[in-house]
Design brief:
Elements (H helix, E strand, L loop, with lengths): L24 E2 L2 E4 L2 E4 L4 E12 L2 E11 L3 H15 L5 H4 L2 H16 L2 H12 L3 H29 L3 E3 L2 E9 L2 E5 L7 H12 L3 E5 L12 H7 L5 E3 L8 H6 L5 E5 L2 H8 L9 E5 L4 E5 L5 H13 L9 E7 L3 H14 L1 E2 L7 E3 L7 H14 L3 E2 L7 E2 L2 E2 L2 E4 L6 H4 L6 E7 L2 H10 L2 E2 L1 E5 L3 H11 L5 E4 L15 E2 L2 E2 L4 H7 L1 E9 L2 H12 L13
Parallel strand pairs: 1-5, 8-9, 8-11, 9-10, 11-12, 13-14, 13-23, 14-21, 15-16, 20-21, 23-24
Antiparallel strand pairs: 2-3, 4-5, 6-7, 7-27, 12-26, 17-20, 18-19, 22-25
Helix pairs in contact: 3-5, 3-7, 4-5, 5-6, 10-11
The protein binds glyceraldehyde-3-phosphate (G3H).
């Protein structure tokens, strides 16, 4: 037990009232076919990463419980989604874009009213700081707004007939079918909604299962979902993955699989689908994004970017910088400055003002991180910073580990936590080889000033990863940029506009440009006889 960290966790009475939870949150509701059903069976306990000082000891705060639904309820949710889609003839997939937008706008309005509850639950369930929890909520609302704008643009561009090689045609995007959406615990609201909302707005019907942690925070939105969408269009289930989503996949009735999590989890689920060629997958998976700090880099900038890149939200971002390659000529200067900045990060509770380090939500995570650090030490590395790697219950103080090499697990594994491996290098080829031979392929950050060298590295990485950041940390945003990856890191591309495309396909109505066909087509359009074949323009 660390003395340094033992004062971090508060007593119940010391938690500011506005950030404490009003009561134990026992959730029994789940959403199927437009109805909030009440679960009478077993519940799953929700433990906060926050421990509380009680007498001479500490107790993990149990904040609530959620339904542990079974295969039966999961299949009921799927039936509702299948019925609402009705083989593409349901009210939702055939509804006009304007009307579908109105439903999403209604949802957004209702969602905004629940901001405080969702933000508070983000803090308590996953330990995200108040500032970042607010940012996650607001960024999600902005994403929904931007999605609406992007869909209007898309629809406007399709509101015309094209003439090509003697054919006249109209091309529009239409839904794919029933989508299963599952998000990650680190962005349980934002990343989940970046697939859920595009899936819905394009006319798919959805079964949504919240992440492993960050589950209760969806509860305040259940009524908004129920009241904003027609019955069966969105169904929300809870429970263990193996009892619920596995059964959904086995039916073969899932057409789109949107999953943010591990590549192993994605593989296990994809394999269950009896007709994999019918399943479209959109996956955001593991990553081990390296930073490469060249000899002529602006060290202050590199340190600032690498600090936020590796340690914001305790390193629990798929886009986090998870290994730093630093040129040996500057490695001492870099690490000194880096350590000084780590020291400035304030450990504390999510609601503490200016907090930079918070407890971790995954059970067993601190032991896993300790194992990585011990393994690195056994292979010749040191923890450079004072208190580095100290742990206390769910809290792990960042460990800056140096010098890291390929014998260590930390060199290869995605730590997804506050451990920062630094690898000294003398030849850029070492960093290039690392990226080329890695199983991951999400992003890379390069820090330097020599345009020739930067250009050489950029070109070396363009066919390896989805984004190359120059003198900048790795990140997903702005959300209009394509977010993807190669190898074990992703399948498909997400961005405000791309997400609309991945949850839809283009269908064409085409005819030879004969006078008779022209007359029929203009008749259909003039009399508004078809919802598809139309030149109506959304304002
Ligand atoms: O966990 C992965 C997130 O998509 C990262 O997003 O780079 O904006 O933190 P971010």
């Amino acid at each position: 037990m660390s003395d340094f960290l033992s004062t971090l966790f508060p007593a119940e009475k010391d938690i500011p009232t506005q950030y404490n939870l009003p009561a134990f949150q026992e959730q029994r509701e789940y959403l199927i076919n437009g109805e909030l059903k009440i679960w009478r069976g077993t519940l799953n306990q929700v433990a906060s990463p926050v421990f509380l000082k009680v007498g001479d000891g500490y107790q993990q705060k149990i904040i609530g419980s959620t339904p542990l639904l079974t295969k039966l309820e999961a299949l009921q949710a799927l039936d509702a989604a299948v019925k609402a889609y009705d083989l593409g003839h349901g009210a939702w997939p055939t509804m006009s874009v304007t009307e579908r937008i109105e439903h999403v706008e209604k949802f957004l309005k209702a969602m905004r009213l629940r901001r405080d509850e969702v933000v508070k639950l983000l803090m308590w369930e996953i330990g995200k700081s108040l500032k970042d929890s607010e940012k996650e909520f607001d960024r999600t609302c902005d994403y929904i707004n931007d999605t609406i704008k992007a869909l209007k643009d898309l629809d406007r561009n399709s509101a015309k007939l094209v003439e090509e090689q003697g054919f006249m045609a109209q091309i529009r995007r239409v839904p794919l079918g029933v989508a299963l959406c599952m998000g990650p615990f680190n962005y349980p609201l934002n990343e989940t909604f970046t697939t859920l909302i595009p899936a819905l707005i394009m006319g798919n019907t959805v079964v949504f299962k919240p992440a492993k942690y960050g589950v209760l925070l969806i509860r305040p939105l259940l009524e908004a979902f129920r009241d904003s969408f027609p019955a069966g269009v969105i169904n929300i289930i809870y429970g263990r993955g193996r009892d619920t989503v596995g059964a959904l996949m086995e039916t073969g009735k899932i057409d789109v699989f949107a999953f943010i999590g591990t590549n192993k989890g994605a593989n296990d689920l994809k394999k269950l689908h009896p007709k994999p060629h019918r399943l479209k997958s959109i996956l955001g998976l593991d990553a081990k994004n390296p930073a490469i700090v060249l000899a002529d880099a602006d060290i202050d900038n590199a340190v600032t970017e690498c600090i936020t890149g590796s340690l914001s939200f305790n390193g629990q971002r798929c886009t986090a910088l998870k290994i730093l390659f630093v040129h040996q000529s500057i490695v001492e200067k870099f690490t000194q400055k880096f350590l000084a900045e780590v020291k400035k990060l304030k450990p504390g509770m999510p609601w503490d003002s200016g907090v930079g380090l918070t407890p971790l939500p995954e059970p067993g995570k601190t032991d896993y991180l300790k194992g990585l650090v011990d393994n690195a030490k056994a292979n010749g590395a040191n923890v450079l910073n004072e208190n580095g790697g100290e742990m206390f219950h769910s809290f792990f103080y960042p460990a800056v580990v140096y010098p890291v090499n390929e014998k260590m697990n930390l060199y290869h594994e995605e730590q997804f936590g506050p451990v920062v491996p630094i690898v000294p290098f003398s030849d850029e080829k070492e960093a290039i080889d690392y990226v080329v031979n890695s199983n991951f392929g999400q992003q890379v950050s390069i820090f330097g000033n020599d345009s020739k060298k930067l250009a050489m590295l950029m070109d070396a990485f363009v066919n390896q990863v989805g984004r190359i950041n120059v003198n900048t940390q790795s990140q997903r945003g702005p959300d209009t940029f394509p977010f993807n990856g190669r190898k074990d890191s992703a399948e498909g591309t997400l961005s405000v506009a791309d997400a609309l495309r991945v949850f839809s396909m283009r269908t064409i109505v085409a005819a030879k440009s004969t006078d008779a066909n022209k007359q029929i087509i203009s008749q259909i359009i003039k009399n508004r006889e078809s919802a598809f074949l139309s030149t109506d323009y959304i304002f």
